[in-house]
Amino acid sequence: MALFGFIGAGNMGFALLKACYSTFGKNELVYFDASAQKCQETESQLGIPAEDSNISVAKKCKYLVLAVKPQFMPEVLDEIKDVITNQIIISIAAGISIDSIREKLGFPAKIVRAMPNTPALIFKGITGISYSSGSFSDEEKEIIGRFFSSFGRYEVFDEKLMNAVTCASGSSPAYVYMFIEALADSVVDLGIPRDKAYILAAQTVLGAAAMVLETGEHPGALKDKVCSPGGTTIAAVKALEEHGFRNAIMKATEACFNRAEKLTLKK
Ligand SMILES: NC(=O)C1=CN([C@@H]2O[C@H](COP(=O)(O)OP(=O)(O)OC[C@H]3O[C@@H](n4cnc5c(N)ncnc54)[C@H](O)[C@@H]3O)[C@@H](O)[C@H]2O)C=CC1
Ligand SMILES: O=C(O)[C@@H]1CCC=N1
């Protein structure tokens, strides 16, 4: 019997498997992916052979991580529902509510709904989590906490905020990469070599993010300290405002949230 079982070893499933491997060890992990290639890749990287089915994974673990796309959740839940007894389900699927999972399973299993992000692959993720009703023991909460800490930080939210969390944790790395790409392209245009452009842009994002987290100062105050009167930065800030920079981010969040709301499992 292993502590953790994974159904799905794609982008996120593999990242979480890898972190779990480092924290809990290979004897505490079982997994299966419908793609034989994913199973082979995971075995070659972690040295753990895949199980032969989702059922086998579900039967052999206490904490069952569902890491398939939201569209595949109904078929996976149908497949495993007869072997779920006291396992705790950890779902990372965008938009899929705790109630809709319980409805598919046919009973009120203990569920943790979570929204991690891809920096989990290098143990620098941020995950929003939400506990279902049902009493989680202190030991279960401790193991769940260690699991989510194994690939970065985590924060607990009321489930009604999980689609909003998705906009700021799960999806937002994509826009940060777009920002880095655009900033790098713009300085390549000014003659900076491309490799150095990515270093300048990415290290700036890393450093600015660390300033927010480590100083506790308001992001606006930190921005003001960069903007010398009549200087270069305020000229750039003015151009960003003229082009709707902040509004573009807010519109992105609105679109992300609306999509998450639409993904909820149909009965
Ligand atoms: N990619 C991301 O940045 C994030 C993704 N998520 C969530 O994680 C989940 C997985 O997303 P990704 O890893 O990006 O997708 P992915 O497509 O990379 O991985 C999903 C894996 O599930 C496997 N799979 C499909 N049907 C299956 C079945 N019936 N049984 C077993 N395995 C099956 C696929 O072969 C694939 O390897 C999604 O629900 C997504 O909403 C959450 C946070 C961030
Ligand atoms: O784009 C998606 O639907 C998934 C969920 C959050 C990040 N990737």
Describe the fold and architecture:
NADPH binds at residue 54. It is found in: Cytoplasm. Its EC number is 1.5.1.2. It catalyses: L-proline + NAD(+) = (S)-1-pyrroline-5-carboxylate + NADH + 2 H(+); L-proline + NADP(+) = (S)-1-pyrroline-5-carboxylate + NADPH + 2 H(+). With 267 residues, the chain is an alpha/beta fold. It has 2 domains: 2-162, Rossmann fold (3-Layer(aba) Sandwich); 172-262, ProC C-terminal domain-like (ProC C-terminal domain-like fold, Orthogonal Bundle), CATH 1.10.3730.10. 53% of the residues lie in helices and 14% in strands. It has helices at residues 11-24, 36-46, 54-59, 73-80, 98-105, 138-149, 162-168, 172-188, 194-215, 219-226, 232-242, 245-262, and strands at 2-7, 29-32, 61-66, 88-91, 111-115, 125-131, 152-156. It has a 7-stranded mixed beta sheet with strand order 2-1-3-4-5-6-7, with helices on both faces. The longest helix is centred in the last third of the chain and has 22 residues, at 194-215. The protein is elongated. It binds 1,4-dihydronicotinamide adenine dinucleotide and (2S)-3,4-dihydro-2H-pyrrole-2-carboxylic acid (A1CAB). (2S)-3,4-dihydro-2H-pyrrole-2-carboxylic acid binds at residues 94, 166, 170-171.
